[in-house]
Design brief:
92 residues, Arc Repressor Mutant, subunit A, Homeodomain-like_sf, 2 strands
């Protein structure tokens, strides 16, 4: 049976499928946000369908933890977008 683990030195401590670097939030984003069937995600990630459903169950059983992870990821994305190199403005 698949288990979800968290270790500080893998994925920054985010919950993930044991023995992999496949994060719970990543699975959720592929299935729910991305509209991909769980079986397709399992094939894509080379995981069992049970592991995908275990990750989805963990997501739904830990809503506050998942909201916090989403907030943190959104903040990182915003910081990266702000600091990304922009092309020069065209001369007018």
């Amino acid at each position: 049976m698949a288990t979800i683990v968290q270790t500080d030195d893998v994925l920054g401590g985010e919950p993930r499928i044991d023995g992999t670097r496949v994060g719970v939030l990543d699975v959720y984003e592929l299935v729910i946000d991305g509209g991909n069937p769980p079986a397709d995600v399992a094939d894509q990630l080379d995981r069992s369908l049970g592991e995908i459903y275990t990750a989805l169950a963990y997501y739904h059983e830990h809503p506050e933890e998942m909201r916090q992870l989403r907030r943190e990821r959104d903040e990182v994305r915003a910081e990266l977008a702000e600091s990304a190199l922009q092309p020069p403005e065209p001369a007018q």
